[in-house]
Structure formats: structure tokens, C-alpha cells
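Module 6 notes. Inverse folding takes a fixed backbone as the condition and produces residue identities as the prediction. Think of it as a translation problem where the source language is geometry and the target language is the twenty amino acids. Below is one complete input and output pair. Work through it position by position during the lab.
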């Protein structure tokens, strides 16, 4: 490979484009993709006509605001309609080389098709993220993500294309994974934040010292929030003696669409592929960069199934000011899923806020469970935590301290805090932990 391994950039020209030039390229691609979608995807033809908009209306990036939104439901309603790929697809099936599907955890799984070019650009973007966190051809990399249908599976190809030695781990049982870490001494691993945490604990219990027996220097986490919560990241880093990087992906777009750099101040998003808008979660009104709202993405270069103004369901913000690393692509911060947000006493609460508080308490193990319930027609939340082994304080004192810390951070106290002994909560699952239980039967429309 001719790339200079001392360069911090995978593609310096692209990653450091002056903002004006980046937006100029975005506009060219936006014009092209909106026209391509209109000409080839039956859904867009119909919805643009109904909204009275035409591809030629795009003269500036802001003109995208004239176009209608789509969401997960649009995907579900149109897939399989008219053809196997459905009405959002803009290419015939013979041009498609890969499909991933979402987990279906919030309904019918949705399928995301890629042309050969879409797929190659996807992997080039993944190489860029791996390079950004410091992976180089002399690294050994374990891809410990699900390969079945999941869009994050193929991201390992991005690491291979970069030249790293790749171990296609998948979702191995933890004993087997620990064996690989010990025997092959890989330097980089990607897994979920909860699993990175639990695997570390299992390693300790199995008699390993993760800092000495393994050679992990970097841990990539994605999938659930955690990698961007400083206290969680720090807790994982302390167990492994490795640096944790948060990635963000969408099954509808790429395994990773955004990734932290060495400054860990938000996640650089591939703005050459994704036009980011932030909109008010209630009204859909477009907000300014820096303001918090629902993130809306338009894919600028995916031809198999263009997404024009896709409401992601993720609440966050984008910072387009320059990053210290020299990259000019904006940085997103995700606060949580719109579906996970709940309102207590008129305050928007995200489970990630609660997690941040709990992970900062030295008397706790860090495991937690949140219950959201209704009492007297208002939503309340309760938190269950585990007291760390060896803590002398009584449970009531620990509960009162947790309650006060939550009140200070979030603004509303939990209805109760239940303190369990170490290991008393059943939240340590192998790959995905369920930590929020919603016991309300009213479906708040938020
Ligand atoms: Zn940066």
C-alpha cells in the first residue's frame, strides 16, 4: 500500500476539505441523487409530485427543506411493493450485490440494498474510520460483531482493505473470545459497550489481567449508547488499559457512519455521504447546527436505495466548527433514541443521562435497570443499581446519594432507588443488554 502510515488521514484531501468546498461537493451530489431518486424510485416520484417539488428546485443545500420527510415506516410500507426491493429502491435487482436488514427490534425488519459501488464506498468509509482511530496495517483486529444480516458485519472488510490482519470473530461466546485475545494477541477489537465492559469483568473473574495478558490497545464500541458517555468509556478503559472509540451506524446506511477521532469530542460524520439536518422533534422545523433535535439524514451517494430526508429517530446535534484534529467533517453527538426518551415532570430524560450518573458513583458496580411507569397519570422513573462488593455504607445511604445525584444532573428525582448486592441485577447479557423497562401502557406521542 502506498499510503504513508505516518499520516493521520486515510484520505487527507477529503477529510480536510474547507467547509465551503465540502458543501459545494454535497450540493453537486444532492442534485444528482434527488434527480436519480425521482427518475427511478416510484415512491419518490409520487411523493415529490404530491408535495409539488421537483429535483430542479435544488439550487442550494437548504432547498432540501422543501422536500418531504421519510422514516422507518416509509421503508416498511414500501418494501416488497412492486418489486422485491420495493418502491424506495432506485436500481433493478441485478445491480444489487448486498442487502443487510435491521434487527426488527422495533417492528418488521427493514432491508438496505447496496450496489457494488455503494458497497465499495461503504467499505472505504469504514477504512477511513479505522485509520482515524489509529489502526494501521501492522494491527491485528478482532471484529466481534454479529455477521448475520447485520450491516456492521461487513465493516471488517474496511479493516482488511486498510491492511490490518483481521479475525472475523462474530458473536463468539466469551470464553472463546478471551482465548483469541490471549492466543492471538490482537491490538484492536470492536464490540458493544456493554459487552466490552462485561467481557472485561469475565476476564478478571477467569483469572486474566486484561492489561497484562492481552494486547488490546483500542476498543471500538457502537450499537448502544455508552461509548460517548465519558464515565462509561473511562470504566471500560480502566479495565482494559485501552483507548475506547465510539462509532455510530445506521442499518439503513452504513455499519459506521460516524466515528470519534483522538479528541473524543463528538463523532465525525461522513458528510461527503450524508447531508445532516436537525429538526424539532415535535414540529419538524429545521434547527441550526448546534441545536438539539432529531437527526435527519439524506444519503448523497447511495444509489440502490437513496434516503431523502430520512428521520433517524436519534436525538442529537451536529457541531460543524473545526475539530482540533484538522478534519472538517462535522461532529455529531447522540443523546439517545427518540423512542427511549421519556418525559418526567416536563423534563426530557434519556436513559444515557441516568447511565452517566450511575457510572460515576464509586459505590456502585455500574450495572443498572431503569423502570418507567405511571402513577396518578404522570410518568415516573425508578432506578435499580448494584452496590459494589466491600462498600460499608448501608443501602439507604447509597440510595439517597444516587437519588440526589440524579436530581442534580437530570432535574427530577427518581420515584425510588432500589439497591441490590453486587451481581444482583440480571443485566449482564452477552451482547445486548436490556436496561430500560417501560411499564406504561399509554403510548406517548413524543
Ligand atoms: Zn476530530
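Target side of the pair, the amino acids:
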Amino acid at each position: 500500500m502506498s499510503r504513508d502510515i505516518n499520516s493521520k488521514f486515510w484520505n487527507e484531501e477529503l477529510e480536510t476539505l474547507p467547509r465551503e468546498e465540502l458543501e459545494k461537493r454535497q450540493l453537486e451530489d444532492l442534485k444528482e441523487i434527488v434527480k436519480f431518486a425521482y427518475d427511478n424510485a416510484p415512491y419518490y416520484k409520487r411523493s415529490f409530485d404530491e408535495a409539488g417539488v421537483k429535483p430542479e428546485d435544488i439550487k442550494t443545500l437548504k432547498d432540501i427543506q422543501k422536500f418531504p420527510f421519510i422514516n422507518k415506516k416509509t421503508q416498511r410500507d414500501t418494501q416488497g411493493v412492486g418489486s422485491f426491493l420495493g418502491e424506495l429502491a432506485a436500481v433493478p435487482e441485478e445491480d444489487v450485490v448486498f442487502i443487510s436488514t435491521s434487527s426488527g427490534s422495533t417492528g418488521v425488519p427493514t432491508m438496505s440494498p447496496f450496489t457494488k459501488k455503494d458497497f465499495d464506498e461503504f467499505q472505504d468509509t469504514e477504512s477511513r474510520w479505522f485509520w482515524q482511530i489509529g489502526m494501521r496495517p501492522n494491527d491485528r483486529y478482532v471484529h466481534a460483531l454479529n455477521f448475520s444480516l447485520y450491516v456492521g458485519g461487513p465493516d471488517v472488510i474496511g479493516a482488511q482493505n486498510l491492511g490490518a490482519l483481521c479475525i472475523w470473530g462474530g458473536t463468539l461466546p466469551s470464553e472463546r473470545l478471551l482465548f483469541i485475545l490471549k492466543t492471538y494477541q490482537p491490538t484492536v477489537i470492536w464490540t458493544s459497550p456493554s459487552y466490552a465492559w462485561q467481557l472485561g469483568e469475565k476476564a478478571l473473574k477467569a483469572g486474566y489481567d486484561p492489561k497484562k495478558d492481552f494486547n488490546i490497545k483500542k476498543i471500538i464500541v457502537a450499537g448502544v449508547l455508552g461509548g460517548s458517555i465519558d464515565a462509561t468509556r473511562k470504566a471500560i478503559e480502566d479495565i482494559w488499559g485501552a483507548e475506547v472509540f465510539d462509532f455510530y451506524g445506521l442499518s439503513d446506511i452504513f455499519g459506521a457512519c460516524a466515528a470519534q477521532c483522538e479528541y473524543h469530542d463528538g463523532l465525525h460524520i461522513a458528510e461527503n455521504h450524508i447531508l445532516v439536518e436537525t429538526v424539532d422533534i415535535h414540529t419538524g422545523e429545521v434547527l441550526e447546527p448546534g441545536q438539539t433535535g432529531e437527526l435527519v439524514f439524506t444519503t448523497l451517494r447511495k444509489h440502490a436505495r437513496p434516503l431523502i430526508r430520512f428521520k433517524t429517530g436519534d436525538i442529537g446535534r451536529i457541531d460543524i466548527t473545526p475539530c482540533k484534529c484538522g478534519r472538517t467533517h462535522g461532529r455529531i453527538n447522540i443523546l439517545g433514541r427518540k423512542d427511549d426518551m421519556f418525559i418526567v415532570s416536563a423534563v426530557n430524560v434519556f436513559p444515557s443521562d441516568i447511565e452517566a450518573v450511575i457510572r460515576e458513583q464509586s459505590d456502585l458496580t455500574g450495572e443498572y435497570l431503569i423502570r418507567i411507569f405511571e402513577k396518578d397519570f404522570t410518568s415516573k422513573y425508578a432506578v435499580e443499581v448494584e452496590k459494589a462488593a466491600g462498600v460499608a455504607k448501608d443501602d439507604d445511604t447509597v440510595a439517597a446519594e444516587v437519588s440526589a445525584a440524579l436530581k442534580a444532573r437530570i432535574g427530577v428525582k427518581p420515584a425510588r432507588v432500589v439497591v441490590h448486592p453486587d451481581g444482583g441485577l440480571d443485566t449482564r447479557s452477552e451482547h445486548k443488554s436490556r436496561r430500560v423497562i417501560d411499564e406504561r401502557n399509554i403510548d406517548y406521542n413524543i
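Reference fact for the lab report: The first helix runs from residue 12 to 15.
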